[in-house]
Amino acid sequence: MESEEEEEGAAAARFASSWSIYENREVLARYAVLDPIGSGAYSDVYHGKRRDDGLHVALKEVHDGKSSSRELAALQLLTNSSHVVQLLDHVWLHPGVLLVLEFLPGSLAEVIEERKEIPFQEFEARNWMEQILKAVAECHSAGILHRDLKPSNLLISSDGVLKVADFGTALVLPVENVEEAVKDSSSGKKKLKGGAEFDRFGSGKKLDSEEIEAWLQGGSFKLKSAATSSEQQPETMVPAQIRGSKSYDRLEIEDSGTEVSPRVSDAEEEEDGARRSSDRNDRYSDGEWEKTSNKDSDWYKVGNDDFRGEMTDCVGTRWYKAPELLYGSTSYNFAVDLWAVGCILGELIQGEPLFPGASDIDQLSRVVRVLGVPNETIWPGISSLPDYDKICFNDDRPPVTLARILPRASGEALRLIEKLLVYDPASRLSASQALSHEFFSGRASSIDAWLNAGSRK
Ligand SMILES: Nc1ncnc2c1ncn2[C@@H]1O[C@H](COP(=O)(O)OP(=O)(O)OP(=O)(O)O)[C@@H](O)[C@H]1O
């Protein structure tokens, strides 16, 4: 067996050229850097050991200044929260920061993957769900919107405690904004500073004809010159009309108003590859959008002094993205996290993602196919959302419904999901309301006690 020093040496030799952690004497004096664990859009994470006492830690090197400030600010506010990864230390790097975190060896994504063939019993789903909701309640009561809840960001300790991690896109609300944020803010009245406009359904890059062909064969969209009859379409497909807009130049359809039909029909065929690539890469592309759309703007800064009450809609991994974000809302609230929680609960019960969209428009169309076409009656304020006028869904078929896509869910589980996956953010349950839902009945009193005692350790 290799000694710890040999292990360290081998890891350093493998990554020395690109990983700055190995050049930081302050870090190396205090921590032994073992293997790399993974990397995300803005970070590299290593398994490490604290030299003082041999404690296993995760060393998260965050390269991006904005993500560093967000993550550090959020984690500092959430110190001692029982379902949030704990920050043990931090060291400023140039650029970015090294976060020393408690080491959490598992994730809910791995658990779901392992249990693909043997679906969770409802009591197991309930156990995970309760911990997720407690995590979200802790974040929200501290004024923090996570904005990227997904199974791979829900880590699990060796003794089975679920903790939310990855606050790189979190929004830390100043105390005075917390109350305002819990009210419905779906009307999209606030705009990004500078009126930033950007292509939300594509990369913003104009593709040449060969690239378009390749992209179409990749199965994200099918261009149609005429309205597609609903009989020809699989049940999960919703025709979407992009209303001639410069924003959608990826398909070069701005002049024609061409009908675009998200191809959801290939779901099975694409499932494996798409799931992985979407889940892993969306944040990256969202990150890119965020940078390109706001590159000249200081629209967002972390911390009470700089908060302007304006938000980006480019957050979250697509499959868990709330409809208000897909419609371009820049004044959303905590409810975006609860939509993601609803998607995660559905995935726990069903063993597969509920809405594995291949693009933002495909994402929205999958939601619309299940919940129906949203309108002012069921979602007051939707018509003022920035992208509402840019896309419409021509579908008069009855919605598929959540009950049909969740055949494994019990009545209680289904009723909870139906209260989380609600179009109108104002009608979505909050984390603490969800914890008191009948799905957890019999245990409601212990949850109340937990909430009343404060969620902190
Ligand atoms: N405290 C921790 N303990 C163990 N592993 C961790 C810890 N924090 C992060 N990781 C792992 O490191 C990887 C990247 O972490 P994280 O998601 O926080 O980074 P990111 O750059 O924000 O990623 P992404 O862009 O995928 O959201 C993930 O595989 C995650 O499981």
From TrEMBL:
Name of the gene encoding the protein in the UniProt record: CDKF-1
Matches recorded under SUPFAM superfamilies: Protein kinase-like (PK-like) (SSF56112)
Domain of life, source organism: Eukaryota
GO cellular component: nucleus
EC number of the protein: 2.7.11.22
Residues reported to bind ATP: 60
Pfam families: Pkinase (PF00069)
Taxonomic placement: Eukaryota, Viridiplantae, Streptophyta, Embryophyta, Tracheophyta
Protein name, as recorded: cyclin-dependent kinase
Keywords assigned: ATP-binding, Kinase, Nucleotide-binding, Serine/threonine-protein kinase, Transferase
UniProt organism field: Selaginella moellendorffii
Family: Belongs to the protein kinase superfamily. CMGC Ser/Thr protein kinase family. CDC2/CDKX subfamily.
Entry keyword Methyltransferase: no
GO molecular-function terms, A-Z: ATP binding; cyclin-dependent protein serine/threonine kinase activity; protein serine/threonine kinase activity
Xref: InterPro entries: CDK (IPR050108), Kinase-like_dom_sf (IPR011009), Prot_kinase_dom (IPR000719), Protein_kinase_ATP_BS (IPR017441), Ser/Thr_kinase_AS (IPR008271)
Start and end residues of each Protein kinase domain: 31-440
Biased composition (Basic and acidic residues): 273-295
